[in-house]
User: Fold PASTA domain-containing protein from Flavobacterium chuncheonense.
Amino acid sequence: MSLPKFLTSKTFVIQLAIAFGIIIVMVFALMKFLSVKTHHGEEIKVPDLSKMQIKIADERIKELGLELILLDTVDFKKDLPPFSVVEQDPKAGNTVKSGRKIYVKVNAGEFMDVTLPVMKNKTYRQISANIKSLGLVEGTITYKPHIAKDIVIQVLQNGKKLDAGDKVKKNSKLDFILGDGKEMFSESSFDEEQNTNEVNENND
Assistant:
């Protein structure tokens, strides 16, 4: 059979139709596979994880077909539960595809330790800003006879004396005993004042 006759024959037309049918089926199957693989059109609303314990948040996210990633632990916030979610990305209410990673930051379990600097024999004005920068709280101030006014004689926490290098929890309240500047001047007090001034000059 010649080529022109074969191309116009019934057999060729049938084979061509079968070939087109196979191609159409394969294209449809491929599109269906890609749709399932990429979760085409499937969107999940991100839940609000704030104040949720990290373990519970992880279980909740997995139930939705998402993945929880812990980015960091932030300084302890006393108004939030320990080890609870304080930040999340994407934010609650956003829609994402299945398998998307949800990044979170978690509240620490407690306040971190702070190392006390040298405060004794410095004026209260000198240490006040330092106390706040360390996240500590100024408590009760009492005065004791001393030649130098507002000089730090002692630092206490709940009645316990503290020294430079001691560790306390951030947000701890510190009490101070300061000099009242009313002690009578004497040779011994002159020597004490001189020593105090030398300490302050060295520390500055």
